């Protein structure tokens, strides 16, 4: 069991949207199990499961721009079902390894516009090179349903 | 389809005392639920404690306390189960008596 804690200054809704857009890259079933608001602030709990582990992500802070406390409890890194499909192909599997929640949080940009407010807008800028294009073939994209957004991006 | 139930109650209590009561009452209930790592946050001067108990998402139970207000949300448990636990809270209970059972 690993635990990660951080504080970030951000707009709660903006960060929520980023997570909602980005968590499907590491889980097939990201679910908000609690969204509690009070006069003093807001607490939101995301749950998402990879193949064998359930992770909990808690955001607590003000509703507007302000300090947000982030806590993640997760088991050791597990492969998602999508990646197990390709475990016999190391080069592809490693390239398709889902990001961890840590990686997703490190990539968060509080200034991202609505259409860029998701993890892979960062990854595309950082990682995408022409020679990698063939890794994401149409056949693979069909199998990797959590990666639908990625597929659409590469079609552009 | 299982229904989500939420329950919020103001309890004039010491935060840590209330959290201890919830932990004792839920973890050692007749049907104790596994609890994930406890999460306590201190943000903007407010202490919040989050406890999540689950059996792979459903049923699940969350407890969030914030300055004496407790907010519960759960799915898949009988009606009245958790309300009874909160109603049984005694702010003066100490030590081993600080639990519902």
What does this structure look like?
The complex is a heterodimer of chains A (156) and B (101). Chain A has 156 residues and is of the alpha+beta class. Chain A is globular. Chain A contains 7 helices and 5 strands. A 5-stranded antiparallel sheet of chain A has the order 1-5-4-3-2. Chain A has one domain (2-155). The relative contact order of chain A is 0.18. Chain A has helices at residues 12-22, 81-84, 90-96, 101-106, 119-127, 138-143, 148-155, and strands at residues 2-11, 31-38, 41-49, 54-61, 65-74. Chain B has 2 helices and 5 strands, in the order βαββββα. Chain B has a 5-stranded antiparallel sheet, covered by helices on one side. Chain B is globular. With 101 residues, chain B is an alpha+beta fold. Chain B has one domain. Chain B has helices at 15-27, 81-87, and strands spanning 4-10, 39-43, 46-54, 60-66, 69-75. The interface between A and B is medium-sized, with 28 and 22 residues.
Outline of the structure:
The complex is a heterodimer of chains A (156) and B (101). With 156 residues, chain A is an alpha+beta fold.
Query: Helical region count of chain A?
Result: 7
Helix content of chain B: 10-25%
Q: Strand fraction band of chain B?
A: 25-35%
Give the quaternary arrangement of the chains: heterodimer
Strand order across the largest sheet of chain A:
1-5-4-3-2
Shape of chain A: globular
Tell me the major beta sheet of chain B: 5 strands, antiparallel
Physical arrangement of strands within the biggest beta sheet of chain B: 1-5-4-3-2
Order of helices and strands of chain A: EHEEEEHHHHHH
Question: Helicity range of the residues of chain A?
Answer: 25-40%
Biggest interface goes to: A-B, 28 and 22 residues
């Amino acid at each position: 069991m690993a635990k990660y804690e951080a504080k970030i200054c951000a707009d709660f809704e903006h960060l929520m949207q980023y997570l909602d857009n980005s968590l499907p890259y590491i889980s097939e079933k990201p679910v908000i199990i609690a969204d509690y608001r009070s006069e003093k602030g807001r607490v939101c709990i995301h749950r998402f499961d990879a193949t064998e582990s359930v992770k909990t992500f808690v955001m607590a802070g003000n509703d507007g721009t302000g300090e947000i406390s982030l806590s993640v409890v997760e088991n050791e890194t597990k492969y998602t079902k999508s990646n197990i499909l390709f475990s016999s192909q190391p080069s592809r599997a490693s390239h398709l390894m889902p990001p961890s929640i840590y990686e997703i949080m490190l990539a968060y940009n509080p200034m991202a516009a609505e259409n860029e407010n998701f993890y892979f807008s960062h990854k595309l800028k950082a990682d995408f090179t022409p020679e990698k294009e063939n890794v994401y073939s149409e056949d693979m994209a069909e199998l990797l349903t959590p990666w639908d957004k990625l597929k659409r991006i590469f079609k552009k | 389809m299982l229904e989500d139930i939420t329950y919020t109650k103001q309890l004039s209590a010491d935060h840590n005392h209330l959290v201890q009561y919830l932990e004792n009452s839920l973890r050692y209930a007749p049907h104790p639920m596994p609890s994930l790592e406890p999460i306590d946050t201190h943000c903007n001067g407010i202490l919040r404690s989050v406890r999540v108990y689950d059996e792979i998402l459903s049923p699940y139970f969350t407890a969030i306390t914030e300055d004496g207000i407790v907010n519960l949300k759960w799915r898949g448990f009988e009606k009245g189960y958790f309300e009874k636990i909160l109603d049984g809270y005694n702010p003066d209970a100490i030590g081993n008596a600080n639990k519902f059972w």
